[in-house]
Amino acid sequence: MQAKQIVARVEELVKPLCEQAGVSLWDVEFEKEGGRYMLTVTVDHPEGVQIDQCEQVSRALDPMLDEKEFDDMPSYTLCVSSAGLSRRLKRPEHFAAFIGHPVELGFYKPVNGAKQTEGTLVAYDNGCVTLESGGQQTVYEPKDIAAVRLAVEI
């Protein structure tokens, strides 16, 4: 099973488990970090995620991942965690939910001399991110964007 297939299947399995735990599924990633694979399930709740909710999802998902369909999956570590305050926006629905909020954009290489920028998320269209900063709107192309995260306001 390839990483994309693993992610898609785990999303199918974990969505009802998240509902039972009183949280929503934010994201699933299967990535190699260092020499190990990490299967990360990220959950969310408008009022914050409790550790007990993460544990409930993890304990329910773990035996499902021991089923035969996952036999050819490389050895991995399962992590179920909260999306957090500075959560990464990846899907169109993530962007739609946070229009009008401050975000940080990280770039693959410097854009206008900077490796990152901050502004208010104005729009998201087909991977293009529009930010407003200092009264000016700028559209950033998906080929330049390494990551988009909510900016933490203190």
Q: How is this structure best described in words?
A:
It is a single chain. With 154 residues, the protein is of the alpha+beta class. The chain folds into two domains: 3-82, RimP-like superfamily, N-terminal (GMP Synthetase, Chain A, domain 3, 2-Layer Sandwich); 92-150, Roll (SH3 type barrels), CATH 2.30.30. 25% of the residues lie in helices and 42% in strands. It contains three helices and eight strands. It has helices at 3-21, 51-64, 92-97; strands spanning 24-33, 36-44, 76-82, 102-111, 114-125, 128-133, 136-140, 145-150. The strands form two sheets. A five-stranded antiparallel beta sheet has the order 7-6-5-4-8. It has a three-stranded mixed beta sheet with strand order 1-2-3. Strand 6 and strand 7 (136-140) form a beta hairpin. The longest helix has 19 residues, at 3-21. It is globular. 16% of the residues are buried. The mean pLDDT is 94. One of its GO terms (cellular component) is cytosol. Its main location: cytoplasm.
